[in-house]
Amino acid sequence: MGLHKEGKTFVVSAGTVFGIFLTCAWYYGSAWLWTGTALSLIVLVFMFRFFRIPKRSFAPVRDAVLSPCDGRVVIIQEVEETEYFKDRRLQVSVFMSINNVHINWVPVNGKVKYFRHHHGKYLLAWHPKSSEKNERTTFVVDVNNKGTVEILFRQIAGYVARRIVTYVKNGETVVQNQQLGFIKFGSRMDLFLPVGTEICVKVGDCVKGTETVLAKL
Questions:
Q1: CB neighbours (10 Å) of residue 82?
Q2: Domain parsing of the chain, residue ranges
Q3: Is residue 84 exposed (0-12), middle (13-18) or buried (19+ Cβ within 10 Å)?
Q4: CATH topology of domain 64-216
Q5: What are phi and psi of 180, to 5 degrees?
Q6: What does the pLDDT read at residue 77?
Q7: Is 201 helix (H, G, I), strand (E, B) or coil?
Q8: Strands 87-96, 173-174: parallel, antiparallel or unpaired by DSSP?
Q9: Distance of alpha carbon 210 from alpha carbon 6, whole angstroms
């Protein structure tokens, strides 16, 4: 298990603070300095854990939509998608708690047909309106390069998450389980699938990015 590149600055900063507290506590022996040392160590361990890179199989699954992240399924419903499709779609939403791995992966093979970043609010990530009102980044992937099967997926920043990092670009050809990006400190991902798609999970299920099949095309 390694450390993700997005966490290096956080880990170095936390490690520096821990080192300063430890040195001062060892030299002066003050109780409050030892308390600060303990707290800074907890923060350092948390940073290592949050920005961890898990060991995964990364095996592609043909004609399937894999989970783009770790977390818990919080929404499965037919909705009106208003940004790109402007018609009825099946929405599947996965909420990432502070304890989950926060790397995001591309769930299908295809070509990025649409990309847009939206500045917005920071409602709690499980709030129904967070998909429309929070800071978010939206992608549409053309699965068969014919425009007949398109999947929209969206990174959503939450109340604590204030930074969305994205690695793919409009017009880029992407492959299943390629790293899509990273959302720092609690967030959500939405997928909008064609109505009639076979959903393989239910609300409340815990899913793993790159491994759990959310739906079959």
A1: 10
A2: 2-53, 64-216
A3: middle
A4: Glucose Permease (Domain IIA) (2.70.70)
A5: -90, -40
A6: 94
A7: coil
A8: unpaired
A9: 19
- How sure is the predictor about 124, in pLDDT bands with cuts at 50, 70 and 90? low
Q: Which structure tokens are listed for 86?
A: 């402007």
Q: Is 159 helix (H, G, I), strand (E, B) or coil?
A: coil
Q: How many residues does this entry show for the chain? A: 217
pLDDT at position 161 is: 47
Give catalytic residues, as residue numbers. 187
| Residue 211 confidence (pLDDT) above 70 | yes
* Strands of the 64-66 sheet, one edge to the other: 64-66, 213-216, 198-199
Pick the more confident residue, 58 or 171: 171
Helix (H, G, I), strand (E, B) or coil at 11: helix
Within 9-149, strands assigned E span 52-53, 64-66, 71-81, 87-96, 103-105, 110-118, 136-142
Q: What is the pTM of this model?
A: 0.82
